[in-house]
Specification:
With 141 residues, this protein is an all-alpha fold. It has a single domain, classed as Four Helix Bundle (Hemerythrin (Met), subunit A) (Up-down Bundle). It is built from seven helices and no strands. Helix 2 packs parallel to helix 7. It is elongated, with a radius of gyration of 15 Å.
Length: 141
C-alpha cells in the first residue's frame, strides 16, 4: 500500500475510535453502562488497529491486548507499554457487556455500573491518546 493510503487508512480507524469514545460517554450519561463499556473496548480496538494500519500491517482479531502485544517492537519500541494493562481490562468487557449469558444469572444492564463505564472510558482514552501520538509522530517523519 502506498504511504499516503496507509496514512489515510490509519486516520480513518483513529477517527472512528474517537467517535466510539464519544458514543461511550453518551451511553454512560444515559445510564447504559454496559454499552459504554463495550463502546470503550471498541474504541481501543480500533485505535490499536489504526496503529497496525499506520505500519502497513494487517491487524486481525478483537483482543486489544493482543493488538498491543503483537506490534513489532523493532517498529514501535516501547511506545505501547502503558497500554498493556488498560488493554487487558477492556478485553474483559468484550463478551459480558453484550450477551445475557455472558454472566451468571444477570443481564449486562444489571451487571455494569457507572464506575465500570468510567473506568472503561478512561482506559480507552489512554489507549487512544497513545495511538494518536504514535500515528502523529510516525506520519510527521
Amino acid at each position: 500500500m502506498s504511504v499516503e493510503r496507509v496514512n489515510v487508512e490509519a486516520r480513518r480507524w483513529l477517527a472512528q475510535a474517537q467517535s466510539d469514545i464519544a458514543a461511550a460517554k453518551s451511553s454512560a450519561a444515559s445510564s447504559h453502562y454496559e454499552w459504554a463499556c463495550f463502546q470503550a473496548q471498541q474504541s481501543a480496538e480500533k485505535a490499536m488497529k489504526a496503529c497496525w494500519f499506520s505500519l502497513d500491517l494487517d491487524p486481525w482479531g478483537y483482543s486489544v491486548a493482543k493488538l498491543v502485544d503483537g506490534l513489532p517492537g523493532n517498529l514501535v519500541g516501547q511506545a505501547f507499554l502503558p497500554a498493556r494493562e488498560p488493554a487487558r481490562q477492556l478485553d474483559k468487557l468484550y463478551i459480558p457487556t453484550r450477551y445475557p449469558n455472558g454472566l451468571p444469572e444477570m443481564t449486562p444492564s444489571e451487571a455494569f455500573s457507572a464506575g465500570d463505564a468510567e473506568a472503561a472510558i478512561s482506559a480507552a482514552e489512554q489507549i487512544y491518546a497513545l495511538a494518536g501520538q504514535f500515528i502523529g509522530i510516525k506520519q510527521s517523519n
